[in-house]
Amino acid sequence: MKKFFEKYDLIKVSGILVLVAVILTWLFPYSYFNGTQLVEQEITRVGITNFFQYAVDGLRYFTVLATFLFVTGGFYQVLSKRPGYQKLVKTIGEKLKGREIPVVLFVSLIFSCLGSLVTEYYPLLAIIPFVITIYNIMKIDKITAFVSTFGGLLVGALGSTYSTKVAGAILEGFKADIADVLTTQSILFVITFVALNIFMILRLNKTKKDKKFEEYDKFAIDTTSKDEKKADKKSAKVWPYALMFVLMFLTISMAYLPWEKYWEITLWKEVTTWLNEFSIAGVPILSYITGTLKEFGAWDIYHTMFVMLFATLLVKCFGKVSFDEIIESFGEGFQKIASTVVAMLAVYLVLEFAFEFPVLPAVIAWFESLTTGFSAFFASLGAFVTSIFSVEMQYGIALTGTYYATAYADKLSTLVIIFQSMFGLVSFFIPSSAILMIGLSYLDIKYKDWMKFIWKFLLIMFLIIAVMIAIIA
Question: Across the strands, what pairs with 280?
């Protein structure tokens, strides 16, 4: 058992947090806020039966996320065997060697900006394996690879601006105006990005001097494939794969931006409406064939799954791949990504216990009983604890955020920054952070190794955030 947890330490740390969530249901009563009034009922303890029931329920509630990861794994396993894709990533990786610092900074900037803006950050994970494969060829260490990609999404959460996933959820829950906090959010984004990337560059320079490299790409190009040697031949067509990834990146990036909600851009809605209503002889041909199309800005996670499946079909056509090979590759991809899916489900198991057996309102009420009037310190403490167990911002707002918004309506701008910064800070190190655990599992990074790298950054950001909150409170 000891060797098992040493190998799968992410399961251990996730299990500890799940256990804490369970224990809290034995110590605090079932509770919720009705406005500013705390409503308490009897203690509803999570028992063995409840534990396994909600573990199974997690598969049902979050099937779309698990399916998304499985489809991503299958898609990249198919690509790893294609000569054109192999030649593409080899060429890019070899040409970028010696330019590691500008490359990781550029990639980090892209993912950080998108993470700060998009309506849903999970679809961006569909692009990361492509980048990771190139990093692996460039021999960039896996922690640097994590910071530049998954870390960029975490920067986007901490420095969220127009993202409806974080800042947008808080603004909507608090009924606050984005104009009142956008400047502070932008400053927080810049500080977080600069601080994290300084640590990333220091790490990269150190590992380059050590000249030690550990392979980490789950979907490295398949050197055992019978077609692998063709990747270096002129007959291997690179352009279809290059074009496919350019279109994928542009589609996924643009489809999850809040065009109409925040920027009042209705172009995509108008174009989509025209396509849906386009008809010949009174017959809406396109909508019959494709179904009702969703405009950019209104896509869900399953739309990106469709993009990957459609791309797989194109690979089958222009790559002359049999359906048997596609199915076999998807099966192999499922196996490779399975541990990452388990890590994701463990994260959401914490949320299930916190949300189905709510005790956090009672905890927050106890914090508030220690002070009179608004206290930035206790509000931050409450937001911090809430963020540990809520996984996504919308659930944190539902559990305790609405209480703060009601009780301190004259401090909404301050509360927005408090909840956003605490959620973002927690996301960098607590095992209930979905992006963190998915990334660490994907790159096979041990939790203790991550903490050795990130703790100084966390300390600096904690101090910076404390000063910012003190200034605006």
Answer: 283
Do residues 135 and 99 touch, judged by C-beta distance below 8 A?
no
What is the H or E stretch that residue 433 is in? none
* Distance, CA of 171 to CA of 420 (rounded, Å): 10
The values of phi and psi at residue 219, to 5°, are: -120, 45
How is residue 328 written in tokens? 């076999």
d(CA 313, CA 310): 5
Q: List the one residue out of 411, 379, 366, 359 whose CA is nearest residue 180.
A: 411
Element spanning 33, H or E: strand 31-34
Distance CA 136, CA 118 (A): 27
Domain count within the chain: 2
Question: Do 308 and 284 reside in the same domain of the chain?
Answer: no
Residue 344 domain boundaries: 2-258+297-472
How many CB atoms neighbour CB 397 within 10 A?
A: 23
In a shared domain, residues 285 and 384: no
Instruction: Dump pLDDT digits (tens) for 393-418.
Output: 999 998 998 899 999 999 999 999 99
The reported pLDDT for the residue numbered 285 is 77
Q: Please give the Cα distance from 294 to 272 (Å, whole number).
A: 7
